[in-house]
Amino acid sequence: MSTQAASNQLLEAVRRFLAEPKRLLIDGEWVEPADGRRFDDPDPSTGETIVAVAHAGEQDVDRAVRAARRAFEERRWHGPPPAQRQRILTRIAELIEEHADELAQIESLDGGKPIALAKRVDVRLAAEHFRYFAGWPTKIEGATLPVSLPNMHCYTRREPVGVCAQIIPWNFPLLMAAWKIAPALAAGCTVVLKPAEQTPLSALRLGELCLEAGVPPGVVNVLTGAGDTGAALVEHPLVAKIAFTGSTAVGREIGAKAGRALKRVTLELGGKSPNVILPDADLERAIKGSFQAIYYNTGQVCTAGSRLFVHKSQFDEVVARLAEQARAAKVGPGLDPSTQIGPLVSREQEQRVRSYIERGVSEGAELVAGGDGQKPIEGGYYVAPTLFVSERDDITIAREEIFGPVLVALPYEDLEEVARRANATEYGLAAGVWTRDVSKAHRMAELLEAGDVYVNIWGPSDPAAPFGGVKASGIGREHGREGLEAYLETKTVWVNLA
């Protein structure tokens, strides 16, 4: 699909949204950055600029955080009855669904994501998260405590933590914004959201929808910018809670800063997830699921099943069938409805992934699909689905997170061996196992060191199910009751009745 063809199929609403340079959302108003800085936001399918976007500096960060703090102190959001928060969160979900086609195009254009995937996964689940958390404001409750002191009435209150800094990645920008904003608003917090500089557009459109739904000024603020914007946000003294999804390296820095300032923090970080096919598995189902586990969203997924362990008796067959599927996959622009594998998000990410492919070859891994150095399509940031096989777990591509369409297949002999090898990584975000044996399924779920374990499926998600990692893959959980409680403080009240 040509650049012109892609442009011609954009909805009129998307054209209007992109017609002018994008501004910052601060205190319910769309404002220019204080120092006038902007950056160009490119379409990864072509490399051409989509629109210029405001680059928030320290002054903008301070203004946004103070607006959020003022909204919190004035109880604009958590002061009214909880049913009001419920109604507005439900309305946000409805608006996302009403604008589904528009949001899917924005997401596809900005991040290169296949348009069908953007609508089926990103937009749909974003609405589901707001609808799920809309049910929580009327159910946040404390408890009356049977303390031992006589004539004492002791009870707890669950209260919002305050201003929350929320920093999201570029691989699922709309969905990650929903993951962060929905529970924070349900708890009664105010937020300052900082989307990734590679994909700022859907967060800005979501900000518009929040205002349309009736979110009061200052409760949701959106700051676009680069790493300096996020750093200023993390370090602001009025921020009470930090929620970050992104690389482990940046997560370590944020965790260290939060620790020094004694700020609450949740971190959803990287992964090098093992995917294990046991000999008794439904092989057809396992191969199909393993293909999706790594090549879904062009491999730009923190839970990507990038290390595939296959029993040596089935290894050659599984590798051959996966290689055949990889070669047949349709690589193309995100807005092309026939595209299965879109471009990587940026030129920098393309170069990073290609460097890992070169490293795999130089360290002796056998390349069986993709990775020939030739772009499937010129103009954008494309890398073909790539498959390596190796007898060694210690090569770079089997140890480090690549965040691209690169799979390493590794043979094994027995269950205890594969569990040990699967866990031999600093990461612990997700793991998968394919088997017909329910006993082995539960045994592997116990042995694997991961925040999520998938059995005969890869990567299901639901707003009610906690999500997060262990080891270097993060701290805390998102989604469900645990995700909500990350935005709540417990206050104990003692009343002497004597």
UniProtKB/TrEMBL annotation:
Sequence ranges assigned to domain Aldehyde dehydrogenase in this UniProt record: 30-493
GO molecular function, a single term: oxidoreductase activity, acting on the aldehyde or oxo group of donors, NAD or NADP as acceptor
Transmembrane segment boundaries: none
Gene3D superfamilies: Aldehyde Dehydrogenase, Chain A, domain 1, Aldehyde Dehydrogenase, Chain A, domain 2
PROSITE patterns: ALDEHYDE_DEHYDR_CYS (PS00070), ALDEHYDE_DEHYDR_GLU (PS00687)
Keywords carried by this UniProt record: Oxidoreductase
Active site residues of this protein: E268
InterPro entries linked: Ald_DH/histidinol_DH (IPR016161), Ald_DH_C (IPR016163), Ald_DH_CS_CYS (IPR016160), Ald_DH_CS_GLU (IPR029510), Ald_DH_N (IPR016162), Aldehyde_DH_dom (IPR015590)
PANTHER family: ALDEHYDE DEHYDROGENASE-RELATED
UniProt family annotation: Belongs to the aldehyde dehydrogenase family.
Name listed for the protein in its UniProt record: Aldehyde dehydrogenase (Acceptor)
High-level lineage: Bacteria, Bacillati, Actinomycetota, Thermoleophilia, Thermoleophilales
